[in-house]
Amino acid sequence: MTDFEPTAQACAAAARATVLAGIARRRSLFTSARTGRELLHIADLLDIAALSFYEEEPTADGIPADSRLALADAEATAIETPSSGFPAGFGQYVTHAVDRRPLAAPAVFGTRNCGLGEEDARLASALDALHGHLAADVSEDVAQALLEAVFALHVKRADLARLARG
Question: What are the residue ranges in the chain where pLDDT is below 50?
Answer without folding.
Answer: 1
